[in-house]
Structure formats: structure tokens, C-alpha cells
Amino acid sequence: MDILVAGGHGQVALRLLKLLAAEGHTARGLIRKPAHAADLQAVGAVPVIGDLENDESLAPYVKGADAVVFAAGAGPGSGPARKRTVDLGGAIKLADAAVEEGVRRYVMVSSIGAQDPAAGGEAMRAYLEAKGEADAYVTARAGLDWTIVRPGGLTDEPGTGLVTVSRELGGRASVTRDDVAAVIAACLTTPSTIGVTFELFGGSTPIDEALRAL
């Protein structure tokens, strides 16, 4: 498969690209800064230079893909405006480009609490609102086989390959970035995840088994 990962230099994205390349896929990462290209090449990925935030269309980058993954984010130091243009606007652009280019498979890396931004407190509200609206757009966009993944608190501990997934929203627990990447990679080839929004935490069930049970 040819898979384009938006936000290709992120911590989860780099792990994902490495996994996809190791599995024999064409793993392409959309990045804004040319200086980051070497980091993608080091994990076997193909850097694609483009501006998720400011380019009018992402269709030229999506062209030729079999699936897309939205793993971008404005980051914790950004203000509400950039959360709207990146976390929301970027996700919308990627969805529109996928439909335009006939790419049905779309996996979204979302956030715990996106279904209830007010419960996240004032500091998190703008971020959760952007994520929630992005999820709503993608799930309503005709022509997409979507999956929404909402990971718990991210850690840098080594992945275990064991997780807990739940369609019931509102859980709280942590999960390693390694395991988030592995789950996203598995979603791309697991039909039972299509049309599903689920939360993801560390757990005791092997990833493939957990996803097949969704």
C-alpha cells in the first residue's frame, strides 16, 4: 500500500512510518520543513514537502495513495487559532483531498475527551473543540472509510503490543506512543475498524485481537 501520513515528523507519525516501511508499504510523510526530511528517510519513509496549514489543497500529495492518516497537531505551545487551522482545518483538507483523489481509507488520530470539550477545562477546550469538529467532519464526509483513534495519555516507554480498546467514550489511562503507532498500522488492514471511533489505552489484549473485536 501507498500510505500518506500527515504530520509526518510527529513522535507517533515517525514510529508509524517506520513500521509501515518495515512491512513493505510505501510510507510517505507530509512535512512542512525540508530540514526534517532526513529524519523520515532514516526510518525508511519518503518525505513529502507541503504545508498542511497554508496550502489550498492537499490533493497533489494524496494522489496515488491507498490510504491516509491524519497525525498532525498544532502542538501544546500553539494558540486557539492554530488549533483551528491545523487540528481542524488540516484534517478537513486531508479528507477533501482523499475524496477528490478517490482514496477511501482515512485514519484519524484524535484525542480523549473530544466528544465533550467543556469537560477538559479551559486550557484544553480549544484543542478538544478542534478535534471534535474534525472527527465530526470526517465521519460525515461521504466517500471515506474512516477510523477515529483516541489514544490515552502518551508515554515514551517501549511498546508492549498489548492494549485495551473501547467504543465507550470517557475512559482515562495511558498508552505508549509505540503501541499507538502499531494500532494505527493495524487499523489500515483491519476492516472491522472501519466506521468505528474508539479509545486506546495500554492493556492486556494483543493488538490484532483487540481490533478484530471492535
UniProtKB/TrEMBL annotation:
Q: Which domain of life is it from?
A: Bacteria
Every copy of the NAD(P)-binding domain together lies at 7-191
Signal peptide (from-to):
none
The protein's matches in Pfam families, at most eight in alphabetical order, are given as: NAD_binding_10
Concerning InterPro entries, the annotation shows: NAD(P)-bd_dom, NAD(P)-bd_dom_sf
The protein's name = SDR family oxidoreductase
Record organism: Paractinoplanes lichenicola
